């Protein structure tokens, strides 16, 4: 990796991360990401250009507005650094190629959806739908050597001189990935709604997985779904255990109940609370998709080698 080019890509990632923060704040609120310029949400004073430098301005201001001293969420700093890190990781993985542009675009969109879902429980169509379209377009210039090419090994060759052959297969794989990802989430949501009587998956998750499938293809989309399911289950289990222990201690202290009785009642209370708690599953879907970009194929090769 060329150090100079790497530094330039890291700086570019910081700039895109700064814009991504604007998208995370404005898109769920139905605001334009172009106009007006950035301003403090509290005092509404426009932010000067020298206070809008990625990372550096936040550090120099101590995480506070220059005018009214309102705290600025560390999310701005974190998103800028993570975006730059993803851009640099894409350059390390794919080199200075069209694949770099493709996966930087995907990382940008996925990271924005992670933080938007975590903060607002929304996955804006203005990110997922253009992402789906871009994923399909990128499949025509950056081939997805995935499940379709394995199912039809004698029909086409991705590395032959025929550009039409690999473009057709790559687009087909992207379309199949989008269909598999979105239909799986839609099906799980429909089953959950019928079984529990409440909506467990929104259409935002369906569109998110359609975008993921268009970028990654069938194989890595399936990998993303299983990894996100495991991560989400572990998060839900750890959450209910934490709530259970906290409520057990509180019942023993406030109501002077015995330990077994406190645990029993606290468990019933914690399960009811979790049942009505919405978990931003898009965080796990998009997060595992980013990881799959870099490690998914290596993991699958290792896993199949064990069988």
Structural write-up:
The protein has 307 residues and is mostly helical. It has 10 helices and no strands. The protein has helices spanning 3-26, 56-60, 75-94, 98-120, 125-138, 147-151, 163-196, 203-254, 259-275, 281-306. The radius of gyration is 23 Å and the shape is globular. The chain starts with a helix and ends with a helix.
Pattern of helices and strands = HHHHHHHHHH
User: How far do the termini sit from each other?
Assistant: 35 Å
Low-confidence stretches: 152-163
Q: Which strand-content bin applies to the residues?
A: under 5%
Helical segment count: 10
Which structural class should the secondary elements be placed in?
mainly alpha
Largest sheet: none
Overall residue-averaged pLDDT value: 86
Gross morphology: globular
- Quaternary assembly: single chain
Q: What share of the residues lie within helices?
A: over 70%
């Amino acid at each position: 990796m060329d150090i100079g080019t790497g530094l330039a890509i890291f700086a570019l990632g910081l700039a895109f991360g700064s814009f991504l923060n604007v998208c995370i704040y404005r898109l769920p609120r139905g605001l334009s990401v172009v106009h007006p310029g950035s301003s403090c949400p509290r005092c509404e004073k426009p932010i000067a250009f020298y206070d809008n430098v990625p990372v550096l301005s936040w550090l120099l201001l101590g995480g506070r507005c220059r005018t009214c001293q309102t705290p600025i969420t560390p999310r701005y700093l974190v998103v800028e650094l993570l975006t730059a890190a993803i851009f640099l990781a894409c350059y390390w993985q794919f080199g200075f190629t069209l694949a770099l542009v493709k996966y930087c675009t995907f990382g940008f969109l996925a990271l924005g959806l992670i933080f938007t879902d975590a903060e607002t429980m929304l996955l804006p169509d203005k990110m997922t739908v253009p992402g789906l379209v871009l994923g399909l377009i990128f499949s025509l210039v950056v081939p997805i050597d995935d499940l379709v090419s394995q199912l039809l090994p004698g029909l086409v060759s991705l590395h032959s001189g025929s550009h039409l052959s690999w473009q057709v297969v790559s687009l087909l794989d992207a379309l199949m990935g989008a269909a598999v990802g979105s239909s799986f989430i839609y099906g799980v949501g429909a089953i959950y709604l019928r079984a529990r009587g409440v909506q467990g998956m929104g259409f935002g998750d369906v569109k998110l997985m359609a975008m993921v499938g268009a970028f990654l293809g069938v194989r890595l989309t399936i990998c993303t779904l299983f990894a996100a399911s495991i991560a989400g289950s572990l998060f839900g289990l750890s959450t209910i255990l934490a709530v259970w222990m906290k409520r057990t201690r509180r019942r023993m202290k406030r109501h002077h109940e015995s330990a077994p009785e406190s645990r029993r009642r606290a468990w019933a209370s914690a399960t009811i609370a979790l049942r009505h708690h919405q978990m931003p599953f898009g965080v796990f879907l998009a997060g595992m998709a980013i990881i799959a970009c870099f490690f998914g194929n290596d993991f699958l090769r290792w896993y199949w080698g064990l069988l």
